[in-house]
Amino acid sequence: MADSKIFKLSDGLDVEKIGQAIQGWLREKKQLHTEVMQTNEGYLVQAKQEDSWKKVVGMDSAVQVQIFKAGEDQIMVNVGSGKWIDKAGAATIGMVAFAPLAVTAAIGAWNQKKLPEELFAFVEQFIMSGGKSVTVSMAASQSAHDGEIVCPNCKAINAEGAKFCASCGTKLGKECPNCHAQVGLNTKFCPNCGTDLNPKPKEMTCPDCQHVVSADTKFCPNCGHNFS
Q1: 113: Cβ–Cβ under 8 A, 6 or more apart, which residues?
Q2: Residue ranges of the domains in the chain?
Q3: What InterPro entries does the entry give (predicted)?
Q4: Cystine design at 137: which of 72, 84, 156, 183 (Cβ 3.0–4.6 Å)?
Q5: How many other CB atoms are there within 10 angstroms of residue 215's CB atom?
Q6: Does position 13 have pLDDT exceeding 70, yes or no?
Q7: Orientation of helix 15-28 relative to helix 114-128, angle to 10°
Q8: What's the pLDDT tens digit per position in 68-100?
Q9: Please, are residues 50 and 34 in contact by the beta-carbon 8 Å criterion?
Q10: SS (H, E, C) 180-222
Q11: Which of 70, 75, 64 is nearest to 13 (CA)?
């Protein structure tokens, strides 16, 4: 049977945020290729080695973590293994029939009990901190690639389109000042109305005399400071 544990949620946390946090932990702490998806029962996170899994027959197994409500303010987290699930069909699946977590190609040589214990400890810490605790992010010294976005709070790398950071829970979006549409942090122009979301400031303050001048001023008219 899969390893399971029930957690009591703190205010502001839900199944979705826990799932995103687990995805970030598996990706950054364990360096695995991960996906999180909504199912009929809650959320499913699956993970496997990114580089070598396609090259060897039988390496389509994955670590699978299922998160679902177990009461009004409780969640159940199951950790097991199974065949990698196509994200396109995830919405139609219900409870995943987990196999015991074994030392397979999905998790390398990790001890069978080590991963669930570490993951449960992370979830407990994440909940106790109200979603603000973060593991040391492997992404902090990396730059985002196409299809990824860097969290402005903890610098973790998240998939493009994520609403909250999988590592610290920070909201990953901003609002267009013109039409109030919700857009991604890296968006330069609003896709709804075309507003420039990174406009240049019209004024700036001289660092020497604190005189306010036009943003295109080259020399401060009050003290002569060179802005170039």
Answers
A1: 3
A2: 3-133
A3: DZR
A4: 156
A5: 10
A6: yes
A7: 130
A8: 998 888 999 988 887 777 765 555 554 455 544
A9: no
A10: CCEECCCCCECCCCCCECCCCCCEEECCCCCCEEECCCCECCC
A11: 75
